């Protein structure tokens, strides 16, 4: 007879790991499955760093969520005894006439988020290791910082195990077979055996885009993104997390982000390339032309000409309006899908997990109508 669990979580990136920990912490019997290995580099949770902003001009409703998420990361940090969040501040640089600066300031003021507006002269005085153009001005999100992503992922997996969850890596998973078996018997096949559950959570990131139709909900599109790493060289002072914020430059044609030195590397990337990726094949590898473009853009914007150390391509899962979404399926009421990786997702993992756990442990009304979509605010 198949083993029975209160919840089966498929996918152990940051969303699945956090959800497994949350469910197990509430006393549920949880099985969490991952087709790959811990800290694998195929999805969107890998890497040493993710930024955490408190000001969100494009999504003002995220402001209160960002503060709550940071509190949750602090709590997890205290529980596992490992540093997970590095305060740095977050600096947005753009031309004085840019709408990006005014939007950031307005969002911060509306949310009562601590911030500063910096003139060109103030930028140059505060950050002498960076070059600023004459028309550059800045918005400094004082409470922002960097999540140490690999540590965060490991911390949630450790918390899940400590709470009694069973984590299986390298599991043989077939989404088509999972679909058929779950709809027929509330079972899913795993590496030649079957397990039974009361609720299924799909936290499969980019692979949601290639899941069979009943599971592929909400509709998503998968985007290729590339991270580049550079040597900090002999900059004085060094571009480290102790003295430098993460910096985003926004102009009409470019959005470039630099994360200061972690593990001896400066990370630089552009956001939302618009290039689609196929989860089955994986994203196209980085090219020399992309590396040269990012290096020259960084030099033009900051004055830093840093030697390249490497690059890696990964995949973002995007919803139509780029919102975070945690949904119970409209017709498969014991299925919850997480689609929360549109460039915002990682930092909100604690809140996504709490919402997903709530959906797993409440009994929905039997209705043919789709439930209210939980999007933007969590």
Automatic annotation (TrEMBL):
<keyword id="KW-0274">FAD</keyword>
<dbReference type="InterPro" id="IPR036188">
    <property type="entry name" value="FAD/NAD-bd_sf"/>
</dbReference>
<keyword id="KW-0285">Flavoprotein</keyword>
<dbReference type="InterPro" id="IPR045170">
    <property type="entry name" value="MTOX"/>
</dbReference>
<dbReference type="Pfam" id="PF01266">
    <property type="entry name" value="DAO"/>
</dbReference>
<feature type="domain" description="FAD dependent oxidoreductase">
    <location>
        <begin position="6"/>
        <end position="359"/>
    </location>
</feature>
<protein>
    <submittedName>
        <fullName>FAD-dependent oxidoreductase</fullName>
    </submittedName>
</protein>
<dbReference type="InterPro" id="IPR006076">
    <property type="entry name" value="FAD-dep_OxRdtase"/>
</dbReference>
<keyword id="KW-0560">Oxidoreductase</keyword>
């Amino acid at each position: 007879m198949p083993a029975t669990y209160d919840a089966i979580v498929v996918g152990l990136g940051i969303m699945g790991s956090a959800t497994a920990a949350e469910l197990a912490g509430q006393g549920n019997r949880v099985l969490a499955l991952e087709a790959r290995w811990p800290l694998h580099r195929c999805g969107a949770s890998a890497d040493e760093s993710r930024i955490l902003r408190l000001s969100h001009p494009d999504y003002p409703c995220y402001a209160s969520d960002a503060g709550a998420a940071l509190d949750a990361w602090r709590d997890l940090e205290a529980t596992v005894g490992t540093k997970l969040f590095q305060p740095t501040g977050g600096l947005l640089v753009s031309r004085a006439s840019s709408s990006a600066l005014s939007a950031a300031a307005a969002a911060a003021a509306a949310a009562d988020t601590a911030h500063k507006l910096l003139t060109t002269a103030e930028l140059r005085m505060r950050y002498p290791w960076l070059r600023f153009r004459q028309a550059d001005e800045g918005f400094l999100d004082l409470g922002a910082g960097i999540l140490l992503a690999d540590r965060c992922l490991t911390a949630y997996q450790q918390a899940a195990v400590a709470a009694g969850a069973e984590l299986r890596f390298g599991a043989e998973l077939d989404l088509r077979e999972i679909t058929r078996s779950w709809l027929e018997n509330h079972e899913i096949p795993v590496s030649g055996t079957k397990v039974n559950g009361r609720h299924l959570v799909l936290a499969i990131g980019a692979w949601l885009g290639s899941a069979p139709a009943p599971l592929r909900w909400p509709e998503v599109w998968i985007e290729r993104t590339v991270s580049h790493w550079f040597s900090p060289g002999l900059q004085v002072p060094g571009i480290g997390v102790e003295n430098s914020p993460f910096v985003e430059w926004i102009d009409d044609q470019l959005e470039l982000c630099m994360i200061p030195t972690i593990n001896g590397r400066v990370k630089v990337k552009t956001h939302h390339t618009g290039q689609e990726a196929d989860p089955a094949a994986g994203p196209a590898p980085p090219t020399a032309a992309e590396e040269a473009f990012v290096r020259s853009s960084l030099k033009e914007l900051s004055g830093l000409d840093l030697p390249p150390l490497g690059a890696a391509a990964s995949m973002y899962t995007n919803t139509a309006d780029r919102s975070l979404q945690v949904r119970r399926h409209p017709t498969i009421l014991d299925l919850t899908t997480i689609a929360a990786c549109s460039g915002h997702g990682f930092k909100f993992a604690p809140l996504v997990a709490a919402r997903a756990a709530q959906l797993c442990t409440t009994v929905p009304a039997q209705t043919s109508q789709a439930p209210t979509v939980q999007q933007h605010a969590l």
